[in-house]
Write a structure and sequence with these properties.
This protein is α+β, with helices and mostly antiparallel strands. The chain is globular and about 45 Å long.
């Protein structure tokens, strides 16, 4: 199996620390990585999304049961950026899952500060985030990855781009977050139910 040199990671953050970074960036009218007006606006919206999902997300009993039964120790490296809309929708849920079991250590890293790590886990040749890397601590092996969005929502994205090739980026983003809102984190939870079995 593939391994990852954790020494290549410049700096990692707990979920609570990551949240505070995003909130501070939003308050200061900034974003992580290269500064652009679009990314600054996205960071501001994402700060509100994170707060809302933190408050509203409820994990299923089935997912709670499966996660609490994990006995091996894992490190979850989650690559993201403050402006990433999929990250804002998914990271609070992943953090709640990780909190269920002390054998899971979640570390968040910024993509643009860790391109050497990011480039090991491209999605169709793209540096798409968020990207979760599951590492078994004892062996150091990468035993699974997830991202950049739930499979069910990714299918909607592919279908949308196929059926509406002329749609603007703004229209796509609007629809993407409508899908997330209607889904209420279920697609992501279903992904992790499936992956927990593979990652054991």
């Amino acid at each position: 199996m593939e391994t990852i040199d954790l020494l290549n990671i410049k700096k990692s953050y707990s979920y609570e620390d990551y949240k505070q970074i995003v909130f501070k960036l939003a308050d200061e009218g900034k974003n992580s990585g290269e500064q652009t007006e679009e990314r600054i606006a996205a960071t501001n919206i994402n700060a509100q999304r994170i707060k809302r999902i933190d408050k509203q997300c409820e994990l299923s009993e089935k997912l709670i049961s499966k996660t609490t039964k994990l006995v091996s120790k894992y490190e979850w490296i989650l690559i993201t950026e403050s402006w990433c809309g999929d990250g804002a929708q998914c990271i609070p849920v992943i953090a709640k899952i990780a909190l269920l079991n002390t054998n899971i250590e979640l570390k968040l890293i910024f993509r643009d500060e860790n391109l050497a790590v990011m480039d090991l886990f491209l999605t169709n040749g793209s540096r798409s985030v968020p990207k979760l890397i599951c590492i078994e601590k004892e062996s150091g092996e990468v035993i699974g990855t997830w991202g950049p969005r739930p499979k069910a929502i990714q299918k909607m994205v592919i279908d949308y781009k196929k059926n509406f090739p002329e749609a603007s980026h703004d229209e796509f983003v609007k629809n993407l977050h409508l899908w997330y809102a209607r889904d209420k984190t279920q697609a992501l939870q279903n992904d992790f139910l499936e992956f927990m079995q593979d990652w054991k």
